Amino acid sequence: RDLQNIHDYLAAAWRFQQAPNGPTLPFSESELNQSPDYWLQWLSKEVSNWEPELVRYIQILLTHAGDEIAVAAETHLIFSLLQNHSTVPWLSDVYRIWEDALDQCPAALLNSEFVASPARNHGATRELV
Known about the structure:
Elements: H1 4-18, H2 29-48, H3 52-63, H4 68-84, H5 92-104, H6 107-110, E1 116-117, E2 127-128
Antiparallel strand pairs: 1-2
Helix pairs in contact: 1-4, 3-4, 4-5
């Protein structure tokens, strides 16, 4: 369950990108057989294009589940995913909620060597804090 939010946002991005060609809900029998392959191919390509800090967020989230640093890692990762998939018509509240959560991350965690600070404007360079 530690990756559920991340899965949900990635799945939403995939569904948005696949909408013109992809299956509609509920899936037909043939679509059920094809969808896992499409999803896994897309997910593999998505993760292979991630910046190293996004992979570190996953590592932190899994190794420190339930700790404050895991919450900070999840927040940073989801905020970064929302930015990376800016063509998805996210509800404005979704972006604001995660941006507010990012602002609530304890400063000590933001200074950690494990957690990078995502840029808040689209296309900007991310720097380690």
